[in-house]
Input
Amino acid sequence: MINIAIQILIWAVGIIAVVTVNALALVYLERKVSAHIQCRLGPMQVGFHGLLQTVADAVKLVSKEQIIPKNADKVLFILAPILAFFPVIVLFVVMPFAPNLICRDLNIGVLYVFSFASLEVIAIFMAGWSSNNKYSLLGAMRSVAQVVSYEVPLLLAVLAVVLVIGSLKMSEVVQYQHKIWMIFLQPAAFLIFMMGGLADTNRSPFDIPEAESELIAGFHTEYSGMRFALFFLSEYSNVFLVSCIATALFLGGWYGPFVNGIHWFVIKVYALVFVMMWVRWTLPRLRPDQLMNFCWKILTPIAILNLLVTGVVLKLVH
Amino acid sequence: MFKNIKEIFTGAWSILVGMFITFKWMLKRPVTIQYPKQPTRPSPVHKGRIRFVIFPATGTHDCIACLKCQNICPSDCFEIKGDKPAEGGKKRPNFFTYNFSNCSLCSLCIEACPTKTLEHSPEFNLASENKDDYFYNFLNDVEERKKKVDATVNR
Ligand code: SF4
Ligand code: SF4
Output
């Protein structure tokens, strides 16, 4: 009993530490990648090559005043950033970092991941609704419209993977790929998953809920200080988590050439994160109707087709 | 149907091309620099404040206090007094101020000067908290520049 309590405590502290440090690292990485793609230097002043810039930003955000708009719905306004951050922590619980490094290896791991990942949109809608600001509300409504569009092909793509593996347990999903990575068996599913992942994390080209040039900051326009930081933290942690899930489902998790282990997992995750940043600084934003068209008319049929073909092939093989 | 499928493939291809281009640019050297720490040179056609030319032949300026620049200046920047020297020869200025805070950098004075002794300086970091810093006494300025053989910015 006491053992389990200590274990849970260690995991909780570890997860929160990883989330924070990782978000700081990702913000730094994002700024450097964007800078170099645009032929700039990026942050250079604070620490060696600006390494401490994000720490300085975090300190600034913590010390800022927390403003609640006069006509905002106070309870929802305060709860929204907490609810946005909650799935992040919860999702880390089933991430298979290494053979012995899974907090809880639930036997419905994959289902658990995607059910908690969709909580994010509720937090976004709460934030947009409670801010009592037209930009926030527009951003929140776009977010909901986006979520119903991309979740269908995303889940269909994951379903095909689960069909092949025959298990929802994260560790078994990874162990299945010790010979051949899932990306080679299900390339279409991987592409659909990554596009859905980009939409899930509200990143360009699917960043229509927070489209800076149209909606200021979308759903978190009215947030300041630590509450804004929580949204920011959860956004970057979501990028990390989507890459983690993609690594576990498609890229063979901790398996790699030479020595298997957590280092392969981390390398793959950061490579995917880099690709997501690279895409963000290459492509312009889609219009909301283009996104709906793309998700419903292109991704969903391909995902269904992929599922059908997978099912038929599996039936023939067995 | 086939048109749509073709469109999807050309679209996907254009995305790949775009990603390749951004990656190529990412590996290039940044064009920006760490400005206050890293010295920079202004562009060769940079038009800074007005100053006297120092002619290498005479080692000084060649102003004859004709007041043409003062008369043509639309912003009334110059204040010039000059006299014929007692020992004879050309008229020389004995008081010559220029107010940079009024100057519109229109270059009319440079074009008007008969002895071609005015030019734009290449200096660019002239910000100051004090308005008086923008009153340049050209006679003092020339003396100072003659002393300072600075190869980097103020030559
Ligand atoms: S550049 Fe134009 S405004 Fe400036 S001093 Fe010369 S004539 Fe006057
Ligand atoms: S126009 Fe030239 S020569 Fe005449 S006063 Fe001005 S600077 Fe001197």
